[in-house]
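Protein folds are increasingly written down as discrete tokens. With that in mind, we are printing a sequence and the tokens encoding its fold.
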Amino acid sequence: MIKPGKYSIGLGDRFGHQGDAQLKAIIAASELGIEITPVWNKSNREHTTIGTQPGDVRSEADRATKNAGFKKSYFVDADHINLDTVDRFIESSDFFTIDVASYIGKKAEDKEIKEFLSGAEKYTGDLKIPGTKLSFKTSEQQLKQIAGKYLFAAIKAWDIYRKIEKVKGSGNFVTEVSMDEVPEPQTPVELFFILNMLASENIPVQTIAPRFSGRFNKGVDYVGDPKLFAREFESDLMVIEFAVKEFGLPENLKMSIHSGSDKFAIYPYIGSIIKKYDKGIHLKTAGTTWLEEVIGLAESGGEALDFVKNIYSESLGKIDELCAPYNDVIDIKVSSLPSREVVADWNSTKFAEALRHIPGNQNYNPNMRQLVHVAYKLAAHQMKEYYRLLESNEKTVSKCVYENIYNRHICRLFDIK
């Protein structure tokens, strides 16, 4: 079975131009003894919006690794696929994020629920996680509720997994199961029985992405209580360890955090907890590489600055259209967005600082950052010009991309000073 390394990071690159800069950040960490497996990911929604194909991501990953002489493992992730969208990804991907969020809450057949309950009833009463102080009270009624909420989703995960396996063969791809894009977080008890369900369906899940408390908005910091997140994360980590042994799941099964990028408030907690227990992590970042491209073009000045100013100006007139697909993962205070007229007078530094996420910088505007984050569609409408500007300002843009991934993500997560 192919496996990602102990640490892996999902790298989004909507326009496919920054693979070299992204990989440079991975190599820089390796030079300090921190081995991170790069996983290039792109969702069906992003492909549809931009007009690219899953094979384009494979081409970019292969090209970047070849350019760098990178001989270690790397993967291409079919990001957030379901039964309707998986087919186009199968040939070019070797990592599949099976998103079961839309199936959660739908009821499985009575006989399927009955079969699950018969195997899980031994866990009613006091459920203790060996080697920890974690202990949960579970009842037959609670098991029925969990089965009613999650069993159908686990069965659909199996349907998707089998569809991939029939083409690629067993052991030739990494399976992640994602359930983070739902309103409420899963409890540690729910996670335990979800893993039981996945094991019963014979899905060799290597990464699992649960929902946590708080807001994981795209491209901005965590909104919530970091200490509560840390308690949930630590509990889930212990539940996963127990479930691996109890249900015969792959021994390298690890947590996947769908961060939406830039969750600086919780990175230190994640880093310290995985270090404490010597556990791995898969950190999936969002499309903030696109934001770094915009910042790099702004810093380049001239026609590049004018281009991104126009993107922002146009986005102000299309807020509802641009935000609709992302309403669950953005919170934009429209009244805090600078007007077209104000931004028109900004220089390169002012525009770049408004978008770049540097905590404490008085020019940083998280509302503007979130709007531009979802405005990539507007650049896709001017693809030829956008690519020309990226290529003519490559040095500045790639520096922004590298510094974002290495300095603001990897260094924070692994406490690199």
In short: The two ends are 35 Å apart (CA to CA).
